[in-house]
Each structure stands twice: as C-alpha cells, then as structure tokens.
C-alpha cells in the first residue's frame, strides 16, 4: 500500500479484533478509513500468540477459536475497500491545523480523527540472539506464521515453551514432514490440556535444550545445534525452517510522549471513548474508565461508540446515533436486499 498525503476521515491504529470491527463499522458509516498495524498480519495477539485457543466471551459463540474469530472479522471487513498498512509501527501522533499527523517507521499518514485499538501496545518478537540469525529472518527463521502451507512437507523446529509455541507445533503436525519443539526447561508453560495433546502427538519434544548455533553449509541454513541446559550434551538437528516463539515485548511509553492521559498502562477516556486529545479516541484493552471490564465483547461495543463520536467530531452535524445496522447495510448494499 502506497502512502499519500490524502487526509482520511478515520485512521484506526491496531488490527486486532476490536480494531477490525471498528474498521468495519466505519465502513458502515461510509467513512474513508485506513488501518495501521505493526504486525505482518491482522488479528493482533489472537493471531500471533493464541490462534488455537478458544474464546468464550464473544456473544453468539458458545466457544470460538481465536483464528476463526479473526478470519470472520477479516471476511466481514472485506465488505469495504479500506486501505490497510501492515508492519508499520506508529512512532508519533501530532495535532495539525484541521487534522492529525501519524508518523510511522515507514512514512506519514494524515487523518481527521484517530481511533487507538492497540490492546497492550505495539509488540515485537524477542529475536534469536545467535550470530547470523538476522540473515535468515523470513527465509529459514520465522517469528510469525502467516501461512501454514509454507511449511508443507518440511522439517520444522519450534523454539518456545508457552501456549503459542505448542499451538503452532500442533497445527503444523499434519502439514509438515516432521515437527520438533525445543524448550529450555523440562516442563512447558502451556495449559495442561495443550501440553497433554502435545505429548500425545508425533511432535518430537526436546527438553531442556537451548539453541546454541545455526548449522550452515556454503552459506545456506540446514539446521541447528542444541546444547543441554544442564549437562554438556550437544545435539544437532537437521531442519528446513525454525520458528522462534520466545514471547514479545511491548511498550506504551510513547503514548505519554504524544500527550495522552495515561494511568496504569491504559488511556483514560470519556464515555464517548474520547481521549484528552481532540479527535483521538481509544477502544479495547488500551482504554480505561470507571467500571471498565476488559473483555473482547466490551471492546466490540466500544468500537461503534468511538466511530460515531469521531465522525460527529469531524462533522458536528453528523448523526451520533445512526440507523440500525440493517438499515445502514441496506443503504450501502441495496442489491443484497433487492430480491
């Protein structure tokens, strides 16, 4: 997606579930919208950390896998032709005359209003600190799994001991030729049910081991050397791909630099989801107010409130209480209702 100097109506920062629904609802209100996220795929932590975990607090679903919920939200968003910018981390947000300026690590965006749906903050993976690891990033060494089919028929090793590492191992088991999981401790940190499934699977469990060295031949990656965490034992493992899942780091320090009112790692908002900066709204886990309950369902409810009030801020004559969704959708897609 190419950067332009065009000023959008709404820019939603954060592509997790609440940000996705906010973008969809903005489309319902026919607002020119863009969405920015620091990760290489939409879905936020649900996609990156917990794709196989079930969620139980989404209305209408007795239980839904995180990956399935995100897939449905993405399909819903496809109704509208929004501009989406991935792998862009917002570094600054400033007020200009008549609009807001959003600086990222890749360029500058312009918007009349901004909705922050950044969860617990922009986060980046903890990378493998071994010589040469950066050379093979996104080739043989991965920190995100964008497409399972990429690993079809390959020998794959996963480094990590938490829920997401176990999830990826179990998801790759029927896809890859061979799957190994490496953890530096004897026991995994994942949920008991997931650990039990892992132990019952064909995934090779290597504990307690630490990745000690990359195995290279003529400059090409062909595997990893493992060192036992307590003994002098060394083991070599031939793999095509290594997925590193050592967790993520996140920071909210930059929000204070933007001038936002922060308390306890959250942005204080009013009942209309507005922050102390005119034209800037916050929804989901990043926002807080008296009596706030931090659930995905809560964020889904906050999203339309923020969109409606942001559009009212942009155009004071605009309705803050629009028609019901059926009427809005009929207006946007009359062919759906013509039969």
Gist of the model:
The chain has 339 residues and is an alpha/beta fold.
Q: What is the mean predicted local confidence, pLDDT?
A: 90
Low-confidence stretches: none
Give the helix level as a range of percent: 10-25%
Structural class: alpha/beta
Number of discrete helical segments: 9
CATH class annotation of the largest domain: Alpha Beta
Number of domains: 2
Beta-strand content = 25-35%
CATH topology of the largest domain: FAD/NAD(P)-binding domain
CATH architecture of the largest domain: 3-Layer(bba) Sandwich
Largest sheet: 7 strands, mixed
* Extended strand count: 22
Rg on CA atoms, Å: 22 Å
Instruction: Please report the distance between the alpha carbons of the first and last residues.
Output: 36 Å
Within CATH, the superfamily of the largest domain carries the name: FAD/NAD(P)-binding domain
- Overall, the morphology is elongated
Question: What does this molecule look like?
Answer:
- The chain is an alpha/beta fold and 339 residues long.
- It has helices at 17-28, 44-48, 66-77, 163-172, 192-200, 253-257, 296-314, 325-332, 334-337, and strands spanning 7-13, 33-36, 54-55, 64-65, 83-85, 90-96, 99-104, 108-116, 123-125, 141-142, 155-159, 178-182, 204-206, 209-217, 220-228, 234-238, 241-244, 248-250, 262-263, 266-268, 280-282, 287-288.
- The chain is elongated and about 70 Å long.
- Strands 1, 2, 5, 6, 7, 8 and 21 form a seven-stranded mixed sheet that branches. A five-stranded parallel sheet has the order 10-17-11-12-13, covered by helices on one side. The chain has a three-stranded antiparallel sheet with strand order 14-15-16, with no helix packed on it.
- Helix 4 (163-172) runs parallel beside helix 5.
């Amino acid at each position: 997606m190419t950067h332009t100097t065009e000023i959008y109506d709404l820019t939603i920062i954060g592509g997790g579930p609440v940000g996705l629904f906010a973008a969809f609802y903005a489309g319902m209100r026919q607002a020119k919208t863009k969405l920015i996220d620091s990760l290489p795929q939409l879905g936020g932590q649900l996609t990156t950390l917990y794709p196989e975990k079930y969620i139980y607090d989404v209305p209408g679903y007795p239980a839904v896998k995180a990956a399935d919920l995100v897939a449905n939200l993405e399909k819903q968003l496809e109704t509208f032709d929004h501009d989406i910018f991935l792998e862009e981390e917002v570094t600054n947000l400033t007020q200009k005359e008549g609009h807001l300026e959003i600086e990222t690590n890749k360029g500058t965006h312009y918007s009349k209003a901004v909705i922050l749906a950044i969860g617990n903050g922009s986060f980046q993976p903890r990378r493998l600190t071994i010589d040469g690891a950066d050379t093979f990033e996104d080739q043989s060494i991965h920190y995100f799994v964008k497409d399972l089919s990429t690993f079809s028929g390959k020998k794959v090793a996963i480094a990590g001991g938490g829920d997401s590492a176990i999830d990826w191992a179990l998801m790759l088991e029927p896809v890859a030729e061979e799957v190994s999981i490496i953890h530096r401790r004897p026991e995994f940190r994942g949920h008991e049910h997931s650990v039990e499934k892992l132990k019952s699977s064909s995934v090779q469990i290597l504990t307690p081991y630490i990745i000690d060295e990359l195995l290279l031949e003529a400059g090409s990656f062909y595997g990893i050397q493992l060192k036992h965490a307590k003994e002098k034992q060394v083991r070599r493992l031939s793999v095509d791909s290594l997925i590193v899942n050592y967790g993520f780091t996140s920071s909210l320090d930059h929000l204070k630099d933007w001038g936002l009112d922060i308390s306890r790692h959250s942005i204080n908002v009013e009942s209309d989801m507005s922050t102390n900066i005119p034209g800037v709204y916050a929804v989901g886990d990043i926002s807080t107010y008296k009596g706030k309950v931090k659930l995905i369902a809560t964020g889904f409810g906050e999203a339309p409130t923020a969109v409606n009030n942001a559009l009212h801020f942009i155009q004071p004559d605009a309705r803050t209480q629009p028609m019901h969704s059926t009427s809005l959708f009929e207006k946007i897609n009359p062919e759906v209702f013509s039969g």
